[in-house]
Amino acid sequence: MVCLGNICRSPLAHGILAHLVRENGLDWIVESAGTGDWHIGHAPDRRSVSVAKKYGVDISAQRARHFAQTFFDQYDYIFVMDDKNYRDVLSLARHEADRNKVKMFLLEGIVPDPYFDETQFEPVYQLIADRCQELIDELKSEHYR
Ligand code: 4NP
After folding, report:
1. Which residue among 52, 75, 104, 116 is least packed, with the fewest CB closer than 10 Å?
2. Per CATH, the architecture of 2-140 is what?
3. What is the pTM assigned to this prediction?
4. Residue nearest ligand 1's atom 7 by CA
5. Keywords on this record (predicted)?
6. What residues does each domain of the chain span?
């Protein structure tokens, strides 16, 4: 799961999907990263930690990472939150196989960045949680393969 800072949106997607993976008894590895490097090593934004906690998902132990080209070799799918993340990740792709791994997290539109708007954490949580539930079903049926 990839966003810009890896402190607001992608930690939520990471935490929620990992939670559902455990609930479904799956053995998938779920991680997250940011295309920007400002927050490397930082815990998620306290507003993301708080909204996730409210719904029983603990993301407090996550630490921000910077998206690296080697991630194309480590993961089967790379889900990005918005168009800029999409362009930035694609710019690191080495070949068609790398490019094919990069998907918009939402089927339509983007996950808006809540960083500068306190009121957006709740709706962003809901948007991400709904899509994570769908993703479990899609990936289980190998929708993308
Ligand atoms: P995120 O939100 O991409 O959802 O983690 C942001 C967090 C920090 C910044 C931008 C977006 N920032 O500019 O520091």
Report:
1. 116
2. 3-Layer(aba) Sandwich (3.40)
3. 0.96
4. 5
5. Hydrolase, Protein phosphatase
6. 2-140
